[in-house]
Each structure stands twice: as structure tokens, then as C-alpha cells.
Amino acid sequence: MLPPQGSAYAGEVDTVYMALFWLSVFLFLGIAVPAIYFAWRYRYKPGRVTPHQTHNTLLEIIWSVIPLLLCIGIFFWGLDGWMKYAVAPGEAMEIQVVAKKWLWQFEYPDGSRTVGEVHVPVNKPVRFVMTSEDVLHDFFVPDMRVKHDIIPGRYTQVWFTPTVLGTHHVTCAEYCGKGHSDMQAKLVVENEADYQKFVETGGTEWEDYKMKPAEWGKLQWERKGCSTCHTIDGTRIASGGPSWKGIWGKMEKLNNGQEVLVNADYVRESMMQPSAKVVAGFEPIMPTFQGLLREHEIQGLMAFIKSLGNDPNGGPPAPTVLSLPPKPVDQKK
Ligand code: HEC
Ligand SMILES: [Cu+2]
User: Could you tell me which CATH class the domain 211-307 is placed in?
Assistant: First the structure.
């Protein structure tokens, strides 16, 4: 009935939840069933005289004192959990989270950044310090049993100790506009060695080095969240931007009436300063990727967009070789 328990305190959260749930079921049935029965048992019948009861002190004390004790007990039980949940242990690793329409951006202690994907080492407490660049968002990781509002101009926090290796789902739980339901991210819990490798190479996998620039770029299109707004098959996403199919090398119409050639310069500018040139018929909603993409990721994206052009072999130049960071040591051997 509940999602898998992915954090150290998930079990405790669930115990409180289930206790409240079954208590509510018990009280509901305990009241509703007798009420229905009495309504039927003492229903009107011609000639029937029902005894007229107005007051019973003992009963009233019982049904006041028992719920009162229950409420006090639940309060202290909840408070105990809440204190653990609210205060992160001092040694917790800190990850900065910036939420914006409609993506998640994460910054690690060493300054490296990712979009739409966050990696954490297993069995170590991690604290997320969160803020928003625009409207209210909400950081919700069901497996970890954390959910907290993110407020523009303010910092809020959650922490947990992930205990289950693998990918967990992060989603926005505060309606934040047209693209709200696309505001998803992956939380990848991995062992210390994989985490260190991830931080050193910015998530570049050993396999990535064997890819052609355009294939690698396609991977970035998904990993960096471009795919939530840009399709590659010519269709248009309602809350998004133009499809990338066939744009490389064409003259793009802008909303100020001018035209611009879609080449490497324009595509790079579109990522870094999206509002500098806005495509006609679209709103300037694309977030800037300044500082969020490594050089080889930008190059890969350009190669990918070029490969979707009308004439992938002609047209203006796109990078054919990526300046990838140093190859990670293959740890699988
Ligand atoms: C929130 C939605 C959104 C996301 C995410 C997004 N874009 Fe955009 N993008 C747009 C919109 C809307 C436009 C058109 C308006 C404009 O030009 O700013 C656009 C325009 C572009 C253009 C110009 C396209 C053309 O036809 O001239 C490029 C290139 C581009 N984006 C690249 C990217 C890349 C690369 C990423 C991922 C790293 C990305 N976008 C992520 C919404 C988005
Ligand atoms: Cu949101």
C-alpha cells in the first residue's frame, strides 16, 4: 500500500501512519455501525414508546477522557518523529537544490552541478537545502518519506539517510504551472566508490566515451531535461518549446520579426541566454543552462541537434569531436 522504504526513518514514519490509519478505521466503525444499528432498532413504529434518556455522567467521562489520552499520546509520538525529521545530524552532506519552472538543479559540496538527477552515497545522512527561483515548488521523494515546500527567496531543508541502492523518484508536489507534471528528477543512491566517480566525472559513464557526439548528445537531451520541452520528432509539447527536428541550418523566425540562422552560435546562445532570441510563437519560458552544462555536454547537444537537421552532412559546422573530461578508470574490472 505504501511505496518502498528507502530511508533510515521511513519505517518509523510508516508505523505512525499505519497506527493513525487503523485507529481512524476503528473509531469510524465504532461510531458508524452502532449509529446505523440504533437508527434501525429504535425506528418509529406506531404505538412504540422509546425510553427517554437525557444524561449519563459515567458515559460522558469515558468518551471524553479516552480520546483525550489518545490525542496526548499521538501528539508526543508525532513530536518525537518530527524532531528527528527536522534536525539533520551535523555530519550530513549538504546538497543545494534550486527548483524552477520546470526543472530541478542540484549542487554538490565540490561545486559540480546536475539537472534532473541527483546522486547520493548510500547509508550516509544527506541534507537538501532548497530554494526556488520563481514560484512555490515542493520537493517530494515518496521512497524516502520526505516532502517539503520550496519557497522563493527563502531556504528550507529536508534530510534523510538513504538505505536502498538504486533509483528513486523525485517529483514536485506543489502545482507550479503548465509544466508541473514534467517536473521530475531521479535520485540515484549508490555506493561510495560510484558516488566519488560520479562527482569526479560529472556523471560521465565509462560507456559514454565510446559514443559518437550525436548519440552522447541524445543522452544529454534526456538527462538534462531538454526532453520535457523539446521533442525530436517534429511534434510540439504544449507547455514547451519548438521541436528540434530539422532546425539545424534553417532560418528561424523570431518574435521580433527578424530571422536567424540556426547554427552552433545560435544554439549555444539559446542554451545560455534563452531570452536573447525568442522563437516566434513561443513564450520565453526556457530556463538558462548557464553554468549547468559542461563544455562537452554543450557540444554533444549541438551535434545531436545537427544530426536532426534537414541536411546533417551539409549546413554550418557542428563539433565532431568532444573535449570530454579525463576518462574515468574502469572500475567494473
Ligand atoms: C521549460 C521548457 C524548456 C526546457 C527544459 C528547455 N527548453 Fe529550449 N526552448 C524552450 C522554449 C519555450 C523555446 C522557444 C523560445 C525561445 O527561443 O526562448 C526554446 C528554444 C530553444 C532553442 C531554439 C530552438 C529554435 O527552434 O530556434 C534551442 C536550441 C533550445 N531551446 C535548446 C535547449 C536545450 C539544449 C535544452 C536542455 C539543455 C533546453 N532547450 C531545455 C523551452 C525549454
Ligand atoms: Cu514545481
Answer: mainly alpha
